[in-house]
Amino acid sequence: MPSNKRYRILSTRAVDPELVSSAAEQSVDIIPQAFIRTRPRVDDRLLQQVQQLLKEKVTVVFTSVNAVNAIQNLYFRILPADAVTEQANMPGWDVYCLEGATKEALSRTAIPHNITGTAANAAMLAQTIVRNEEKGPLVFFCGDRRRDELPDILRQRNIGLNEVIVYETTETPAVTGATYDGIFFLSPSAVQSFFSVNHLAQHTVCFSIGPTTAAALEQHTNNKIIISTGQRMADMVQTAIFYFNNIN
Question: Domain of life here (predicted)?
């Protein structure tokens, strides 16, 4: 990367300041601007439902960090952090989840669980569930704007799936008023929100967190789309740095 050339990337989601600083040292300036807002659901019916599920040996599915964080929030409302006896008596959940950030978020929770299977995206996770001959019903913790791939595949195979909406997504579009060398997209909802009020310059590269988000991008732009090497924001940042280091 030429020392006199700096690259500007807009991130449609917040970025850890340490990642921003690390990228800046390699001539990549990341400007965060959230294009969606997520809000965990908290109501009596949902609390009772999750409380009951914690008492059961169930198989659950997570395809987003937001769902994991929402369940963690409910868990601490149901069970105080010092309730050691109650935690010990929980059977624990068998969990299918996405690799990367979702799995890492689960590892940080206090919820008793065992990872049964992982995959890079929702469609592949559904195929893993099918291969493991799960009969269901499985519990799918998701948002109110979840994608159809996983539920459709499981229902085609007659695998029962109970969807529990634990967070809500709201688009927060904003006109950028600037030109960027690259843009980070981490969900189809962020893609929709961004393009509802913005257009891309021809040279702007779209960096996608995965194939599902890339497919959403293809519906809005013909610009170059590069899929991140992993599911974490750190992977996205490194993918962009590698790209800009090697385009000349």
Answer: Bacteria
